[in-house]
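User: Can you fold this complex?
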Amino acid sequence: MQGSPLSPYLFNIYIDELIVRLNDSTAGIPCGLFYADDGVLLAQDLPSLRHLADLLTWWSAEASIAVNIKKYRLVLGRIVALEHATEPVLICRKPLLVVESYTYLSFPMGSNGIDFATHLSKRISQANGRASFLRLHSDG
Amino acid sequence: MNGLDQLKWTACLKLLHTSFDFLFLTETWFVGHERHVRDRRFVASTPLPPLSLQRSRNGGGIYLLASASARGRLVGDVRTTSSTITFHTDLFSFSALYLQPSMSREDVVATLGSVAASHVVLGDVNARLPWPRTQSGRPGPPERVEALADFSRSHSFTTFKGSRLDAPPRSGVPVKLVLRQLLTVDHYFVKSGSVPGARLLLLDNQSIGLPTDHAYTLCLHLTTHRSIPVNPSCPRDAPATIRFHLGKLSDENIQKDICAAFDLGTRSLGLLSAAPVEAATLERRLISLVQSICRRFLGEKTSSAAAGMSRKTVPASQQDPQVSTLLYKSAAAESRENGDILPSERGRSAGLSALQEISDSLAERYAGRALASDGSVDSVGVGECHDELSESDVVREIRRQDASKACGLDSVHIRVIKALLSSSYPKVLCRLFNLCLSGGSTPSSWNSTDIHMVTKDTDRPRDVDNVRPITLICIHRKLFERLLLVHFFDKSGWARLHPTQAGFRGDYSTLTNATVVHHLLSTGLIRHAAFIDLEKAFDMVDHTRLHTLLVRRGCPSRIRDLVESLTFRGLRSRVLVNGQSSD
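Assistant: Here's the predicted assembly.
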């Protein structure tokens, strides 16, 4: 039920099983991070990514929770991108798209992590917008 | 013309709303197809025929439509071929046929064979059969009649022997299947004897308001359907939310009067008496007491026009600069939760070191997690579950509620509740909550919600595409759930979540996850990041699966009962659009 404080928590419990499975394999490094329904699969190489993708696909069928295809993105370096092109990574039979950057939880994410230049300039323009909005209306 | 024009389409949708769960439309000519497939009631259609055949009887196809509540009963995929649609519910499988006049005998046999496994086959077969009396004219064409007869015999289907009925069945009847009758009643339908309680009806198209040149609609009426509709229809005259003049609450004298009146009411109604009482009864009495006090001391607002609007619809009046400034301020206050992002942005040098720090501490947490994650979480919470909530817990929870939120279905606003803090109200509420806890069930009135549509983008017209549903839930329910979370979930081992989950959790924010991803990418620990998005409809959660998960986690049965009582039992929602309500 939307609007109830309990539902998101139960949703978290529902998907926790998936997250435990995803993070089962390695020591120390998280492989699947989730913010509610917003998730990211992290891997050192393509085979491990494929493995995570398979885990997700299985779980999605098992738990009847669909994975939103539109937002699949894969951020990686150019060389790996070529490798990926020969045989795409599939999640729920849908191929992952390769992109240079992706906005994750409102942070622009590139292959070297958060792109601070872009992030900052976006924030600054937002701040400017708000400031001028206030100036406009401050005298009522 | 047999095209599905706007008039017929609207009539079909209306039927879905009032009487039918599923509706097959046969020999549709795909007129306005692009528009139809976008409708939310559209489930499937046979593939579009080649252009040369479109708009003719040989190019006709089938549509499957389902009402909102029936859609949830579909199980598995809906299969379509060029002349059939098959779908499953939890009990039965249904197929619809459209046998084009030009189909060869072999094709007819093959098509029939492909649907033989279904419990029910409805069809427009473009043939006159010798047996149902309702058909007029000579039977034929012979080849097809023979093929159909073979099919009925070999797969033990019986053909329709319907009775005429002049009015549609009443709404709320479980599963109905409908086939549009074409021309005269020269089309036929087969069903197996294995579906108990099925009754076939011929509906007069005129009386059900279907504007077509055909006389009847075939209707299959199944009475033995065991699954409970998710949204049983809600009475149309459900009382509207009452608005009170909350501004008067700032008057201290009124506050005192309200508290005194409440204490008096508590005594006279015996809300705190030792006599046993059911949670639902207590809830009902409490709400009506608070409502009557509000009515007496605050007075009802007369304009009900603005009642349906939550505060987020206010931007419509953006011309008023003062209103906009106020809005901006409240928006800024709301966005405080994102404030913690700022430190990371002060600059690369300073920000990065801060990030580094967070990342490292998180990495440690993950390392420690490896041990705890293997389901060895149990028994911790069991002891705590015998705890009762105390009055001070309730008071604390009420204090931290956001007073600017709109009130729910029960018309009790959080500001009224805050004003009642110094009366015996928290004590009564605490009693109510503990009754729920000990009984493992919650008042059914808590499961009713109001859904309001608020405008997404105020610059665009307020049409159906531009509104977002906002659910308002009862204030007591909200408080109870919060308390449940704080006291019985957060503390107990069985509800512990994996640390890589950050959503809706106290110590985590979007920054937590973004930082981890950043750290791992920038240090080269990982080179691949695949961003995904789960379908976050809590309604999609499989209830039995959730139940199993809770059991496996060692969730006490009482809490499980409460979760079930709150989320899955007799949910009722009504949507308020332009002051009108529906279910």
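The longest helix of chain B spans residues 348-372. Chain B touches chain A through 75 residues (CB under 8 Å).
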